[in-house]
Amino acid sequence: METSKDLFKELEIAEKLFLDGSIKNAQKKVRYVLNKSKNFKNIPNKLRHKLNAAINKSRYFDDISSFATNPKRDELISMVNKLIEQPLKDPRKHAHAINDIQGQWQLLDISSKSASKSQWLKFNELTNKAWESCKEYFDEIKQIKINNAIERDKIIDEINNYVINNNDNWSSIKDLSRYLHKMFQKWQSFAPVLDKDLNRLKKLYFEARKPINDQILKQENINKEKKELLIGKVNEINDEDNQICINKFKDLKSQWQKIGPSGRKNDNKLWSKFNKDADRFFIEKKQAIKDEIEIVLKLMSELDSDIKSVNEVENELKNFKNISNTKEIKQIKNLIKTKKLAQLKKINDEKLSKYKNIYDVLINKDSLENVQNVFKGPIEDSYKNNKSNLDELIYSCLKLEILAKVDSLKKYQNLRNTIQLELLQDKFNKADKKDLNNIDSLICHYINNFSSSDAGPEHKKLWNRMTKCFEVLI
Predict the structure, then answer these.
(1) What is the pLDDT of residue 176?
(2) With a threshold of 0.85, does the pTM exceed it?
(3) Signed CA dihedral, 450, 455, 458, 463: sign only
(4) Is 432 exposed, middle or buried (0-12, 13-18, 19+ CB in 10 A)?
(5) DSSP per residue over 281-336, as a string?
(6) CA distance 35 to 374
(7) For residue 114, is pLDDT > 70?
(8) pLDDT tens, 54-90?
(9) Hey, which end of the chain has fewer CB within 10 Å, N or C?
């Protein structure tokens, strides 16, 4: 015999179920307390007030459920009316349409408050009338419903066996939830059933699932306690070295991630508190990051305006330890890359300009001030040449075109083939390798075989072709 204290505790459980969103289970508790309270001659005021509050809350959720599902029920009634007014020509399709509507109606009863008596009587009357146009098919549909009930009984047995087999060694919350979802999908695939079977099956189905739901709730509570324990450990961290504090927090965070869920409602709150209690460790680090970012922004400005060189900036960046993946670091690295490319282009442009200038120096015997040192001696010697060796000049040009992968004139194809064979032999005979396999050596070869005394259009054309190779190779 329950005491008023026992019923009061049951109402507290019901209140928690309402808060957790388990409305059906909460309403079941309230009905249980209401029935038991009828055995009391005098109900204590405290219990009466709490019971009335629970009954009002139960009715509130019923009203909300009705508000959400009644339009759908009205729609289903309209669909039956339409089938009565315009029966489908194919009795099989007509019966299936009625069958589908009844299945949707029953699913609404499972997922929300059952239909009112007036709604049910109206729906039942209309469906019976809709069946009249396909009476010959009724027995077949009835057998489908009977078979669905048999399959649902099997599902209930399967869930009960699962509970028996796992009662001593339950799986994780994730696996249990996945199993319940799988069985629910299977359950829904066998609708509708006969009206006389619906309530019985529904009751047995929820009773079969209850031990699994209870186990999920139990595991969630255990996980909640574990997470609360870790939150307490965060508060206990108090080392002088801030980095040690951060490392300890990261260890606790790793432990946290291995703990399963603690309920949808609890998880977000606990996670927020866990991180909030650790904010004090990261204040110093956040300031260090902020300071380093300010320095990087200043360096970026100095680099962009050429106040500091690329090398100076790169050396200073080595000292930063906290902002390796920030957008500011990526921006300054992109700027460094742009600066390096600009410097390289400038060097190459200057080098190309000096190369191009060599021919004018050879012809006009201009100052050697802007000529690379490697060419000064050969140029001075060329001034003593009385005649150019055109074959060697052509050789220099063709070899440079091969190195630059530039096409040569067709009339020089045989000579080009000979030079390519020579390059191949040099590749495999390093000891006998000639020194005419780069720009500078081929330019020197050209200079050594050039004479301004007989220089003509052919010499100039060869040099222009070589100039195109300089642009490619540089």
Answers:
(1) 93
(2) no
(3) positive
(4) exposed
(5) HHHHHHHHHHHHHHHHHHHHHHHHTTSS-HHHHHHHHTT--S-TTSHHHHHHHHHH
(6) 110
(7) no
(8) 777 666 556 555 555 667 777 888 888 888 888 887 7
(9) N
- State what percent of residues in the chain have pLDDT above 90: 21
Distance separating alpha carbons of residues 236 and 363, to the nearest angstrom? 86
Instruction: Report the distance separating Cα 265 and Cα 367, nearest Å.
Output: 86
**Identity at 111, one-letter amino acid code:** S
Predicted pLDDT of residue 180: 94
DSSP-assigned letter for residue 172? -
What the block records as the tokens of 413 is 């194809």
DSSP 3-state of 384: coil
Assigned token pair, 243? 């980095």
Nearest to 37 by CA among 65, 10, 4: 4
Question: How far is the CA of 390 from the CAs of 179, 180, 397, 448, in angstroms?
Answer: 89, 92, 11, 11
Residue 346 token pair: 């400038």
Q: What is the mean pLDDT of the chain?
A: 83
Residue type at 83 in one-letter notation: L
Contact between 430 and 380 (Cβ < 8 Å): no
CA torsion sign for 28, 32, 38, 43 is negative
User: CA-CA distance, 88 to 104, in Å (whole number)?
Assistant: 19
58 to each of 53, 72, 303, 469, how far by Cα in Å? 9, 21, 70, 89
Domain segments of the chain: what residues?
223-279, 283-337, 372-473
Q: Which amino acid is at 119?
A: Q
In this structure, which amino acid lies at residue 344?
L
